[in-house]
Design a protein that fits this description.
The chain is an alpha+beta fold and about 190 residues long. It has six helices and four strands, in the order ααβααβαβαβ.
Length: about 190
C-alpha cells in the first residue's frame, strides 16, 4: 500500500490506456471510497454513472464535440481556439478511447455541487492510482444535451454532468510536470 505522499506524487493525468477492461467491482470500490470525501453540510450530492461501453462513449464524445463546436460558432469565447481543429477531427475521441468513463453528476439546485464534486473526484483519482489505474478529468466531455442520450444514461432532468472522469490501466505513467512552490501571500499570526 502506498503512503499518502507516494499517492500524491504518483497521480497523473492519463490519456493513453491498455486494452484492458476495469472490473465493475473495482469501480464500485473506488466510488464507495469517493463517498468519504467532504461535502458542504455533509450533503453528499454526487451521483455516478459508469459507462463501460466504448460504442456508447464514442456516441457521447461525438455529441459533446458537436455541441462544443456549435457553441464556439456562436461565441468564440466559449472554447479555447486551440481545441477547434482537434474537435473537428472525426477520429478524435474526447475520452481518449479509455475503457471506462464515470460521470459525476448532481442536482442543478445544489449550490456547492462543483466543489463537492471536485472533492469526490480527487478521491476517485487517488483510489484509482492506489490500484494501479490512471484517470483524467475530461471537461470537454461534459457537453451532453441530446435528451435521448441523457435518458439512456439515466441522467435526471434536474441534474447536470460536473465531471467526466476516464479511468483505465495506463500504457505508461508520464513523468511529473513541474510544480511551483506555493504562493503564500501572507501568514497572519
Amino acid at each position: 500500500m502506498m503512503t499518502f505522499t507516494e499517492l500524491l506524487k504518483k497521480r497523473r493525468a492519463i490519456r493513453d490506456f491498455q486494452e484492458k477492461d476495469v472490473s465493475p467491482d473495482v469501480i464500485k470500490e473506488i466510488l464507495k471510497e469517493s463517498c468519504l470525501a467532504p461535502s458542504a453540510s455533509n450533503g453528499q450530492p454526487c451521483q455516478f454513472i459508469v459507462i463501460n461501453n466504448r460504442e456508447m462513449m464514442k456516441k457521447l464524445s461525438d455529441e459533446s464535440k458537436k455541441n462544443l463546436l456549435q457553441d464556439f460558432a456562436e461565441n468564440k469565447g466559449s472554447l479555447n481556439p486551440n481545441y477547434v481543429d482537434m474537435l473537428k477531427n472525426e477520429s478524435f475521441n474526447v475520452y481518449y478511447n479509455a475503457p471506462c468513463l464515470i460521470y459525476v453528476i448532481g442536482s442543478k439546485s445544489v449550490r456547492s455541487l462543483d466543489v463537492d464534486s471536485s472533492l469526490a473526484v480527487s478521491y476517485i483519482m487517488f483510489g484509482a492510482t492506489e490500484r494501479g489505474l490512471g484517470t483524467c478529468w475530461i471537461h470537454l466531455g461534459s457537453h451532453i444535451r441530446d435528451q435521448k442520450l441523457k435518458a439512456e444514461l439515466g441522467i435526471p432532468d434536474d441534474c447536470r454532468i460536473v465531471a467526466p472522469i476516464i479511468i483505465g490501466y495506463p500504457k505508461e505513467i508520464p513523468a511529473a510536470s513541474e510544480r511551483h512552490a506555493p504562493q503564500i501571500l501572507k501568514i497572519v499570526g
